[in-house]
Amino acid sequence: MNQKTIFSVIVLLALVIGIVAFGQYSPQMSEDPAPNEATVSLENDQAVRQVVMDFGRQLQQVSLLASTDDRKAAMDAAYAQYVAPELLAEWYPEGADALGRYTSSPWPDSIDIVEVRQTGPNFVVEGNVLEVAQSDEGVVPAAVYPVTLSLEERDGTWMIVKMEKGAYSPLPQQQSLVGFWECLPHKDTEGPQTMECAFGIALDQSDGHMAVDTSLMSTYPVDYAVGTKVRISGIVTPVNQLSSIQKYDIDGIIRATMIEEI
Prior knowledge:
alpha+beta
């Protein structure tokens, strides 16, 4: 399997969400932040993210359709480092209630994080499980479903203690869109606005906006000036197939394989 392709797929939704939810990683500053609070929060945030990303890479190791004994053995080997024992116990008898692999293809490749938020001493992670499949072009995105994970610190280690997953959505095929290069508009226009520019296109002949992910492209496209008319070919995912946590006012995201000025 082509390693470059696998890497692109792994960062696919992470970059998607970097476009869709740009700025989520930057904590909002309160008027009177405690001197050490931000540092502790950042350390925990990074630790929680790492646990979820590492756990996501293990999902393909567990067949949910295996026998109970085989499923339990696979979960113990792949998940015990990340998932609390009581949650694993719930997953052993009924694979449908767990995260893992149903078929040989497509298979779960990663969990791409949308948002991390602290709720008391615990953390909640909103993300998307990306499934991929082998094609004539290599490993390609095949499906996605949202997932919410709750993590609790136990003996200095963050463990997943609760999981909820949303509807499974196959990804659509290659499409071509025409629009005008832009900085995506924010959904929340009230209060202070961050200054980052998350690239997207204002769709031609409509009021819609589409986020643009370039992780599937071998080279980064030209830095087009805002307002440049472009044609983009790629894989389109509607916004209702992404996590409900969105920072920008978009109709979806296109994972570009080609961008050209017209």
